[in-house]
Amino acid sequence: MSSSSDVAVEGVEGPLAEFAALRVEIQERVKAQQQMLSFQLTFTGAVFGFAITRPGMTALLLIVPFGSYLLCARLVAQHFGTLRVAMYIKDELSGRVPGGLGWERWLESRQRRRPHFMGSTLPLLFTFAGASVLALGWTTGYVFGRHGVQTLARFGLGAFWVLGVAAALSCVVFVLQMNNRLPVRSWAQTGLS
């Protein structure tokens, strides 16, 4: 015959196992963010190094804004995915465990303010948008001022350059939203709903 405490413990095993699995998911998402940040630094350094040391390869820098945009978007999506998992743990799962889980509530109580601009927001802006702006600035003369470029080629490079500006601006928006400096109206806006 089982006691009432055995029944209570059995009812908690499922939510605790789910909590453990969700914590692993959060850790994987954070690890993915660090990998994307490292890849951004490596990618940007490699492209700049290659384009600057080889004559006539300046146009290669135009891929930096697009690569930066893609990596920044994935990093921010992982961030918002982590927030969604944490919200689920706090709002749904914690109530199914006697006494609650408390981890996300404890984290939330310590992180009510926005991340520090100099320590969190600015480095990400430099890493993604800054690299894009530097690449666009470096290629401006090549795209718009170089003599002997056919009209169609100049138009194509110009369009690519303008799209690069849009990609860089998107990185700025993503980083500011991630760091609570621009509002996110809904989860649908993060692409995670």
UniProtKB/TrEMBL annotation:
Protein name, entry field: Sensor protein
Superkingdom, natural source: Bacteria
Keywords: Membrane, Transmembrane, Transmembrane helix
Species of provenance: Saccharothrix lopnurensis
Chain ranges passing through the membrane: 59-77, 117-138, 158-176
